[in-house]
TrEMBL record:
PROSITE patterns: RECOMBINASE_DNA_BIND, RECOMBINASES_1, RECOMBINASES_3. SMART domains: Resolvase. It holds the Pfam family Recombinase. This is Recombinase family protein. The lineage of its organism: Bacteria, Pseudomonadati, Pseudomonadota, Alphaproteobacteria, Hyphomicrobiales. It comes from Methylocella tundrae. PANTHER family: DNA RECOMBINASE-RELATED, DNA-INVERTASE FROM LAMBDOID PROPHAGE. It comes from the Bacteria. Residues 162-293 form the Recombinase domain.
């Protein structure tokens, strides 16, 4: 009596959409079962893989099948697939698993590409696998190109949008509905709050770090979009994601190994912005300054006043401290172009300048030119105007949230009235879910309204007046210098974030937003804020207004 071969069916489709619409799996199953009947095989198990790529082995059912096929004794003698491409689309990996099964006496059979066991048929199967791999890579290339173009046209390619956004239908192209991102009013304020906490704090203490923001949100039960708790990675991702300034980056990493792709392959999708670019750039500069991989600890805590913010105007290289022996035998210190120090004049003809002299020039200029009430008012005028615009937008948003709360309450009351009057049955399908959904919308809108009101109150407490400017200017001039003749490094770096040394001038640059935050924090009596670094170069609006020495007195700075 002949014992029938025991067979296992492996069925696979590439996408979840194909699996949902029953495009391929039922047909594969029908043909596989018919093949078993015609060959007299006993079908003992079926492995179904809905929506999984065959370019790798990260497939649960595939791994379960391989585990069963390599166990001793194996529960089946052959694995039946519709075509070899259902099994694998990588020639090397396919051959690896075919041989792994064969070592345990299990054979791979394709019902549409039947092969023998002789060397010629083995070679034909390997050639088919190479063609399947090539076709898979070509298809992936064309799909990616289409998705990149879709993103460049401003359309969303799928997946879950970043928190603060939601997906909406934009237009219809044939049978396809093109979708775009729009701001989600229920969660947008959470994103704005995270940026405000990082840059300004909560009005009680100064700017917060990523960990402090995480604790702040979790302690106040401000949950993530799915109701979970915040983690460090999610906060850092929000603070660094360009989507929030209206530039969503698509195709940034390789799908296979998650390696970063070159900028030339990244597609930028335009979307509504949640955060001002100036604030976003200030956040990136501060994160970079705190990153020990970018800014060594000695740069932020060392004794040298301008290390880390002083650069050569010719080559852009850092000006670093060097020491030398004077004619009288003493040691003197000076700033010199690091490129010139490493490579000589062939690298850069940049210059050197005595450290004491440059420190004195920078501190004196900030005292005499920047820290004057009338100068500060002029510099900060545009920033204050933008703050006023943001305040108006917050008021409009708060009004919209209150309107949403009122509308939701009205809808809930109508439902309750209908239930009480007997028009609607509480046990009706979907009614309880609808009530729960409306309550969730109302609770979220109420929480967002509270945060929006707190932001408005915080902005009101930060109003800048002439007395604050004068007090700040007077205190800052005093605090820059120490009684011993040195300088307060943290105070100076809150006012200036970049110093460029040229042959005939020293250019001092800084951030208007950073200056305003320092002023507000100092006026509120919050120490330590001034020590935060930034490299956003904005307050030097005119090239002749913050240059030392001023013409025509300025000659070449001698070393």
């Amino acid at each position: 009596m002949t014992v029938p071969l025991r067979a296992a069916l492996y069925l696979r489709v590439s996408t979840a959409r194909q699996a949902e619409h029953d495009v391929s799996i039922p047909d594969q199953k029908r043909q596989g079962e018919a093949w078993c009947v015609s060959r007299g095989c006993e079908l003992v198990e079926t492995f179904v893989e809905p929506g999984a790529t065959a370019t790798n082995d990260r497939r649960p059912e595939f791994q379960r099948m391989i585990e069963a096929g390599t166990s001793k004794p194996a529960p089946f003698d052959v694995v039946i697939v519709h075509s070899f491409s259902r099994f694998f689309r990588d020639a090397f990996d396919m051959e690896f698993y075919v041989r792994k099964l064969a070592k345990n006496g299990v054979k791979l059979v394709s019902i549409t590409q039947e092969m023998g066991d002789d060397p010629m048929h083995v070679m034909m199967r390997q050639i088919m696998a190479l063609f399947d791999e090539y076709q898979s890579k070509e298809n992936a290339k064309h799909v990616l190109r289409a998705m990149n173009e879709n993103a460049r046209q401003g359309f969303w390619n799928g997946a879950l949008p970043p928190i603060g956004y939601r997906i909406v239908a934009a237009e219809q192209r044939g049978s396809k509905t093109k979708k775009k991102l729009e701001i989600d009013p229920l969660h947008a304020d959470t994103v704005r709050l995270i940026y405000r906490l990082f840059l300004e704090g909560d009005g009680v203490k100064g700017p917060m770090g990523v960990k402090a923001i995480t604790c702040y949100l979790n302690e106040r039960r401000i949950f993530t979009r799915d109701g979970g708790r915040w983690g460090l990675a999610s906060i850092h991702q929000i603070l660094t994601r360009t989507t929030y300034i209206g530039e969503h980056r698509f195709n940034t990493r390789s799908h296979k190994d998650r390696e970063k792709k070159p900028e030339s392959e990244v597609a930028v999708m335009v979307c509504p912005s949640l955060i001002d670019r100036e604030n976003f750039d200030a956040v990136q500069a501060r994160l970079k300054a705190r990153d020990p991989r970018m800014t060594p600890a000695r740069v932020t805590s060392g004794p040298t006043l301008l290390t880390g913010i002083c650069f050569c105007a010719k080559c852009g290289g850092a000006m670093t401290m060097r020491t030398g022996k004077g004619s009288a035998g003493g040691t003197y210190r000076y700033y010199t172009c690091s490129t010139k120090a490493r490579q000589g004049k062939t690298g850069c003809e940049g210059r050197s300048i005595p450290m004491d002299r440059l420190d004195q020039l920078v501190a004196s200029h900030l005292e005499d030119r920047l820290l004057r009430p009338e100068r500060l008012e002029t510099i900060l005028a545009s920033v204050l105007d933008r703050r006023q615009e943001r305040t108006e937008r917050r008021r409009e948003h708060l009004a919209e949230l209150h309107k949403r709360i009122a509308e939701t309450d009205q809808r809930l009351n109508r439902l309750f009235d209908a239930i009480e009057s007997g028009v609607a049955d509480l046990d009706a399908p979907g009614l309880k879910e609808r009530i729960a959904g409306l309550k969730a919308i109302r609770e979220q809108a109420s929480a967002d309204a509270e945060r929006a009101q707190a932001a408005l109150d915080h902005a009101g407490n930060q109003a800048v007046n002439p007395d604050m400017v004068r007090t700040f200017a007077r205190a800052a001039r005093q605090r820059i210098r120490l009684d011993s003749g040195g300088y307060r490094r943290d105070h100076l770096r809150a006012l200036a974030q970049r110093v460029e040394v040229a042959d005939t001038e020293v250019r001092i640059m800084g951030s208007k937003s950073e200056l305003l935050r320092t002023l507000v924090a100092a006026s509120g009596g919050k120490p330590g804020v001034a020590g935060v670094q930034s490299s956003v170069l904005k307050w030097r609006a005119r090239h002749d207004s913050n240059v030392w020495p001023p013409p025509p007195e300025g000659g070449a700075l001698s070393s």
